[in-house]
Amino acid sequence: MEPFESIDFYRLDDLLTEEQRLIRGTVREFVEENIIPSIEQHFMDGTFPREVIPQLGELGLLGANLEGYGCAGLDNISYGLIMQELERGDSGLRSFVSVQGGLVMYPIWRFGTEEQKQKYLPRLATGEFVGCFGLTEPDHGSNPSGMITNAVEDGDEYILNGNKMWITNGCVADVAVVWAKLDGVVRGFIVEKGTPGFSTTLQQGKFSLRASVTSELHFQDCRIPKGNLLPDVQGLKGPLSCLTQARYGIAWGAVGSAMACFDCARKYTGSRIQFDKPIASFQIVQAKLAEQLSEITKAQLVALRLGQMKEAGTMTPQHVSLAKRNNVRIALDIARICRDMLGANGVTHEYPVGRHMLNLESVITYEGTHDIHTLILGQSVTGIAAYS
Amino acid sequence: MKVAVCLKRVPDTTTKIEVGADGKSINPAGVQYVISPYDEFAVEEGIRRKEAAGEGSVTIVTVGPAASTDVIRKALGMGADDAVLATTEESLDPRRTAEALAGVLRDRGDDLVLFGRTSVDGQSAQVGAQVAGLLGIPYVGDVVGLEIEGRSAKITREVEGGHVVLRGDLPLAIGCQKGLNEPRYPSLKGIMMAKKKPIETVEATCGDPTVETVSLAPPPARPDGRIVGEGVDAVPELVRLLREEAKIV
Q1: Which residues, other chains included, contact A377 with Cβ-Cβ below 8 Å and sequence gap of 6+?
Q2: pTM score
């Protein structure tokens, strides 16, 4: 495979700083050398490339936009570019880093005690600890407020009971941030691996995000010390604020997947000869490439502007919904069409397109489904919430 | 351990190069620039020498356009301490590049001056040797091993089919070859710190051109393939052509 060539039709690089370009270049090189050569095999085997976790930590990619506690303290556009480059490699890899940074480190950093931060953040930043985030339940996906998992106070401890499902990194996590109802109010708890009453099950049989571990978490009279409650947040806004962080990264990451597919299809159609000429010379192929170039360019602009607003403190969850919804949608559409443009080769692991296409079926479903983001925007436009 | 690393900014090796309208230079539109790959070994080696000595400094020295700060920042992100950029918008021949570099290096008193064995664009493999000549210090090229004890260096050099081991005293100039080390990635924290590291800018000083680029030409287009027959029957003819015409078997 030829090395990846990115797409910058509107010269958005001119809007980036030297450091931002350098950070992107570093992650791109890292992915090209350490992820691309083995990712298809990991996908086929259904394994996460655990061997790269220390490298992710050493480079500073875990919790990269957080300040202090061993984190790199990057601006949000640099963070977005990192997500883009990781997902150019594989959505499962980006998911790992999103979960670790946006869903585990972020709530501890934002809502945790100083003691919790000192204990967990430096180890999560180096990758010594892997984290997972337990919100979704078997019967409560789009509607997390209906969660059944609950916590009961008992002396110096809380007793957790319930089940979580579709949890990225669950079986490999050293520490879980779990959301449960305490006296009817959603609260965040830190549960360490090995705590009696806490167990996990690997979810088998996925055709998507196969290079990412997905698990169920089970809590059966699981006793955790009172000091493991995240003190500074109550209610659903806790987990939802985490999801806003992760969705922000997904909006950038989807652009990476879309560029990977486009780059592959552009090269493939340029070299595949049928009827004595490259298939790229057919108008039907050119029309597809032109459409994809337009959509990628628009998605890049949306991501970049979202990053500017996040930096300025003007970004709202609705802004994030539009970007996540749009960028994942176009990435999935592009992946499906590129799969088709590669003909029979598109259904093999010789090319990355089929893998991205399958991965994006998860990405469009998790972190707020496409339809839920549609309803969030619908509420924003009409002032009427369809889901309440 | 005072180390200078001479670093060149070159078009990314994956960039498709087009000859510019003047026929003598490359068309810069859409070209991405990187540290010349052999120079990355030099940057890494400089940082390792400083780390091994437990003291000292690594300075990046570049001759090139003002925009060269982008690749210099990467070297600073890897761990170099500071940089000097001798600016020129001209494309210098090896002699003039060496003069401009020597102009920066002359009064510094470095223990080691490191180069890539050659640049991947000009590929003259002259600059390291010429700089060493101008500074009056020894130069060893194609180096794949370097051990330093006190002021004495043991240098392993790659030659056709084997290695030569040399011993010499500092100061030395070294041309780094693949195999010397594995260059590190700049960490994100390294990149953030690099923002604050100084890049001193001076004007490149060198003599008049002694050679002139007359024209550039891309490699000729590959001619169409030839089908000599089909199946087993074609084998004798194919072998004959490979032997007599292509002369590769």
Answers
A1: A318, A321, A322, A325
A2: 0.89
